Amino acid sequence: MSKEVKEEIKAMGGSPFRHVLPLLLVQFCQAVQVMMLFPLLVFMVQFYGIAGDDPKAVGTYTGVLASMFPLAMFTSSFFWGWLSDHIGRKPVTLVGVFALGTGSILLGLTRDYYTALTIRIVSGLLNNITSMLKCMIAEMSGKHQAKGMSYFSVAFTTGTLMGPSLAGILAMPCTQYGPRFPGCSAQDSFLEKYPFFLSFFFFGAFTLISGAYAMYYTPETILKRKPLPRRLQFLSFLVPAEGKGPVGAREAVKYQVLEEEADEESQIHVNGVEMTEMKASSNGENGIGYLYTKDGQLELEASGAEGPHGDDGGAEGRAVLKEAGSLDEDQEKYDGWFRKKEVQIAVFLYFCIALFYVSFEELFPLFGSARVAAGGLSLASKDVGIFMSIGGGCTILYTLFLFPKMIKRGGTLWLIKAGSINCMILAVLTPLMRLLVNESDYPQETGMVNKSGLQYMSPLLWVVMVLHAIFTHVFGTNCFASVIMVVNKASPPQHFGAVNSYAQALASLARVIGPSAVGWLWTACGKIEGSMMLQVFLPFLFCGASAFAMFCLAFSAPSWLTSRS
Question: Which CATH class is domain 3-217?
């Protein structure tokens, strides 16, 4: 990294946006790849013919195919996070990106259910993109972490909105648009044989291009790599070699913010790790380093002429003394990170937030698309998508312009506490929207499947649905972006990747548990004889319980975990 870039980073308090942009594109691709499958799953299972003529079997095979990707991520996330602390964030991210893009293209060329299942499992096992991007953006953002997380959230929200809609438009073109669509005129055409190729190839190719962009324009962000254990030395080829000159002097990007404004209680956690060691980078001509001692922290800058073997012929520098903690206390604090209360609170808070929202996003379409006679709102899948798009559009504007201000005013923990209260309210009030439906306004619905009921909705229900969508998405953004910052604050720098991947693994587990639990509850409660409102209300209690757990964890978190930066 050049001296000019170092000075730019130091002056800005974080990385230039051109370094962050490739990561946002990768996060957009990750969100698209996760969400685009959902509107296609039923049609894919039917195309593979694995379920035969049994409609119940279609649901079973669909659920298995949907859950394998997050389940595979759950089993491997911690390993990739641990490995990133040794080889760097960038190699682990690129492995996941290229596996995801290649897997998507192969999925479009698949005509067999078990082949598709294998591709999803392998893609999930190699994928730890989200937790790595959280680490990199946090390490690059410096004092602008709230703004960095807001961009991260916008990229994810945009991907979740565009992925399913574009995938649905491009899928099965010969069936949707007939022989007029290019490539569908012949009876046994390529797009007839592989009806999902366009959807998966388009996003797969875009993912690979984004990965190549990130590979060349995003620097490594980890400050100091740990040595690989001897049994894993074969993975050393993933570690990039950086440097120049006859000896190849090493150079690494420094994004660590040495000191920020904070109260006395949280200052020691803001300043990072104080240890007796020196961290430095040099290109043979200039160098900068940080010396951590038991008495203080020295920031060292040196410059000099390059010697005949790439060493410094002479140097001059300056040193700034800053307060530091004791070596023994810090070493004890970081070696036992898994047993630390604050780490467990942060990661299980992330788990509860993920569990609520993935369960709620699975349950609300079931409730909305159910017929009025069955206790639902008689909405078609595209009707639910309309309200989700309204909420998502408002969320993008909120995230860009208001979220950083909310962080500065209330802090991350305050936003999570407010979000947990909102989640409990949503869990209670959502099934009560059924009371705003006048059943006599709806026609007889015998045999109607996926028919729109928007034209029969009252104006009051329209307003409530729009507000419901906005509150769900806005508070969801508050919770997810804030809890990422809380996890980062609780993470010891030496184990930053491991802790973030541990949190991501639990979030992946929530994505396996949530849909299965609420789907089973919805089916089971539908068989209960008696009050229809009771049948509808009981599944939402599962969401309410996860929101209450979120509330308890947020209030039990130590105050120094909050951030207003």
Answer: mainly alpha
